[in-house]
Amino acid sequence: MEQEVIESEMVLPTHLRFKKIQMYEKYPKGQARGRHWKHLKQIIQAENYQNYPADEPNYVNIESPPSMHPRKQICDITGYEAPYSDPRTHLRYANTEVFKLIRSLPNEYVQRYLALRNAAVVLK
């Protein structure tokens, strides 16, 4: 078996190319590396937004119609997406640990969290 391996000629390149050589070939001296990012001012000048209709939203006219998707519910404590809502306090929560914290909060703290969300609810 070993003689078969020794006798067979493996075709390997004489020089293995690594990153430095590839980078040099890809970007010869004096040429910019990577992407060239445009600023908003450059995009606006290049796109000629004067020619677009006034009711179509673009970079210059940021007024757009309201979203057709429902608003995401955000946890009042953590800021994560909240699939649950406490029926007693009306606070939104993301997981069970936050729910335990909400249930242990005094009533005045719950009112402050609701006021931050502009959901003035008088709890009994």
Structural overview:
By secondary structure, this protein is mainly alpha-helical. It has a domain at 71-124. Helix content is 33%, strand content 3%. The protein is built from 5 helices and 2 strands. It has helices at 2-7, 19-26, 40-47, 96-104, 107-116, and strands at residues 84-85, 92-93. The chain has a two-stranded antiparallel sheet. A hairpin with a 6-residue loop joins β1 (84-85) and β2 (92-93). It starts with a helix and ends in an 8-residue tail after the last helix. The model has no long low-confidence stretch (mean pLDDT 77).
Task: Summarize this structure briefly.
This protein is mainly alpha-helical. Helices cover 33% and strands 3% of the residues.
Offer a few descriptive terms:
single chain; 124 residues; mainly alpha; two-stranded antiparallel sheet; 5 helices
**SS content category:** mainly alpha
Uncertain runs with pLDDT below 50, 5 residues or more? none
What does the oligomeric state look like here? single chain
Separation of termini? 87 Å
Strand content: under 5%
- What overall geometry do the principal axes of the alpha carbons give? flat
Cα-atom radius of gyration: 31 Å
- Order of H and E elements: HHHEEHH
Share of residues in helices:
25-40%
Please provide the count of β strands.
2
Q: How many helical stretches? A: 5
In terms of topology, how is this protein built?
Elements: H1 2-7, H2 19-26, H3 40-47, E1 84-85, E2 92-93, H4 96-104, H5 107-116
Antiparallel strand pairs: 1-2
